[in-house]
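Project standup — Tuesday

K.O.: blocked on the structure for the chain from last sprint. Re-posting the sequence here as requested.
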Amino acid sequence: MLLGVDVGGTFTDAVLVVDGLPTRPAAVYTAKVPSTPAEPSRGVLEAVHAVLAAAGAGPGEVERFAHGMTVATNALLEGRSARTALIATEGFTDLIALGRQARAHLYRLCAANPAPLAPAQLRFGAPERMTPEGPLRALDPGAARALIEELAAAEPEAVAVALLHSYAHPEHERLLGELLAERLPAVHVSLSHELVGTFREYERAASTEVDAALSPLLGAYLRRLGAEADALGLARPAVMQSSGGLIDAEGAAAHAARTVLSGPAGGVRGALALAALAGEGDVLCFDMGGTSCDVCLIEGGRVAETAEGVVAGRPLALAMLDIHTVGAGGGSIAWRDPGGALRVGPRSAGADPGPACYGRGGEHPTVTDANLLLGRLPGAATLREPAAQRTDEAPAGTRRAQPSGAPVLAGGLTLDRDAAERAVGDLAEHLGLSPLRCAEGIVQVAEAEMLRALRTMTVERGIDPRGFALMPFGGAGPLHAAALARALGMRRILCPRASGVLCALGLAAAAPRRDAARTVLLAGETLTAERLAEEREALVARASADLGAATERVVVRYELRYRGQSFELAVEEREAEEEDEDVRARTGGAPSPDALREAFARAHARRYGYRDDGVEVELVTIRASAWGAAPALRLAGSAEEPAPDTTIEGPTICALPGSTLYVPAGWRGEVDALGTVHLHDMEAAA
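H.V.: unblocked you, prediction finished:
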């Protein structure tokens, strides 16, 4: 039994995958409960109890418990962090405050970049200076101890250490780390060469500061959750990283910055698994939950990664899946701006009180309230006679919506239509619209925001989305899939049966992962096959050390640029495979320098439309990722609707476990054996 639990802004989702047990048939059980933002672990345990009850299983039967959460992300967004001190090279203590000296917004001169998490009084200069070649000014142990005593007097809860060029020569950082552990054993310490390991001092220092500030908070949460799991007899949680791989709770607590995209990364892993089962290699995915919408692209069965992420305005130079997030979710609040325009988000009603229709005291109109009034949720009737409620004869096996009774969402929430009407009606009055037109406008504005995010990941990168299938997930995603697909010219939609809890399913199906990176700056005569093999071997050994014999595969990426360029392009080792067996043996599996240069030139031509064979190519950074074994994900069919082989024709709505699929007129499809709905735009085909 594999358990995945994802904490979102509005709901906490749980998935239990049962497979390979002689006493139980293969099955997937799901549960969705309201999140508890003040105490996330309470919602986690409620979801665990609910899904175990659905399966008739006990906690001791769970083999692995994988967890994705927003604890670190929310703390960063809300400005909650540990009291953090920064140790930087003397003369560079204001490095993070200065940043790149770029304005937060080009035209809004009043907009400011976020303030450093370590205030000026908690920044300390280390009397040392390292160059890329080695020490220019050695760090004297006596001076280091005096510095630590000065820092200890400030009573920090966490310390970030980010010295110049420690990616190449970490000796001084290691010395400070040892002295800090000796003098302040209860204080969390983050060392930049351990966390990041690459050059660009501002991004490395900012990432280390974020890591130090968040790790005590995440550590306290995971220790509490681990103790509660022990009391239940449940396996201790493994945590999803932003890179899409699992790490043990102790590793996550040591480096919280690696988990800031924990929840969305689980969704990407779930989307990858179900796209593969559906036989689709090119899929554009969007995860619309209660608070935000996360967009990612699966191309050729793979998801792009980046090491240049930005969260809450702060750079994170860490491996993470390439996910673009906007503030558009089911709980996003609609409002009238000073110019009289209808706006939606980024503020959300969250889990408490939630949208007005949840009946928990919410008074602001949200996207969910608008969808309820438009008849897009099970059991709802619109303010007018909708096409989705027509009773004209349909082909045999075709599902039609049959609204009746009080609409109910997953998690046992009975929707309050009157409260939704009041909330939307108040906004409609201020806008001079009818409630129905206002509800339609709310949905259209939210979809416009999501459409921009989808175009950012495709059109703006030179990728034509029309050759991709659109996969919606999250509790609210399938409600908007058809409109977004048509706006992008996409003709196919894949809606998994488990779309409402796909992040949790991805957690259950994820594999362990460890990463290592090093900036090498090799070019010309220094970029030799021997040096390449040496650097690759050392990195692979570092990445594989924790997993040991459990390492199933290793992925190595090389980041290169033409001499004089400011940024790099990543080339995977498989794109630069060396055909000559003698060369392969001599380089220990690493590609030859010539093969690497050629692979980079091809990648540059694909991205920018040209290659320049007359310019020297520089290898900047090497990254290695070691993966453990992922559990086999064989989803069993379910008696829940929609049943396999059912034909679906719009206009209709399909109630799925944890979400609702809205199928407008002109769309038609079928349900496969795994419960995934395959829809086709018949009007576009015609």
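K.O.: great, moving the ticket to review. The longest strand covers residues 513-523. The chain has three domains: 77-219, 332-505+637-685, 513-627.
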